[in-house]
Amino acid sequence: MQLFNCSRCGPWQIDRSGINDFYILRYSKKQISRIIYGIWNQRVKLNDIDEIPDVSPEFRKNELNNFTISIDERINTLFGYICLKSTEPGRIISEDIQRLCDVTHSDIEESVYWFLNYLQESGYISPHNINNTIIPNRIELGLTYSGYKYYFEIQSGKSKSNYGFMAMKYHDPELDRIFYDFFKPGCAKLGLDLKTLIDEPAAGLIDNRLRVMILQSKFLIADLTHKNPGAYWEAGFAEGSGKPVIYSCRADLFHEAHFDTNHHHTILWNPSQPEEAERKLIDTLRITFSIFE
Fold first, then answer.
1. Domain boundary residue among 155, 174, 197?
2. What is the residue range of 41's domain?
């Protein structure tokens, strides 16, 4: 791997074959801009301004094949970037307009001002020198209390996300049946979706996609049946991120669950009575999210 420190997108790394690609493929300015946006977007999604992305062939292919970036996504990336830079209440950040063009995948500065105007009208930022006449091409602004509060809600899973993430051993017939035939339909009855990592295959590092899916989820279900180390890690990561974590386990194997988790609320499921586990999951979600209609 070779580390680069770019003036437009900060540090990132790439392997030797990737370096050759840059010379052979000769990316256009628009393609390079798209990759730069992908780097910033990944940092925002991972809630880590110092993340050093691996700009692998898979990463670049995924970014360049994703032709449509919604206005909402660009605004959310900008807002997340501002929040990551605003490490303390009252801190005023000063940003170069070109950097914010890169962060929002904007060809013109007017787009950045349009996005900032929306965040200001929403009460999330307070401009101190948006149209800076003293220092040209720089923007000074700060987060409001509402902005900090909204960002905390996003990070703690209280945002508009309507899906849960399930950490589990894949390709186990019994557990697959519980997930697809009972847990997922049970969530749907409450207007919620339930996903696993393999439900949405995409290019890029699995660890990064995993963290992004958990951070953007509303809750997490961790199945302990197979003593899967990944499920324990994902549950810990979710709890550390402020997400509600619900445990599940096949009833006759619950005694083997790790002592750190076996005292938590756990939905025990029996392959011969899966409907009971679905009912318990629905009841748990109703109480957790106050869904009583």
1. 155
2. 2-65
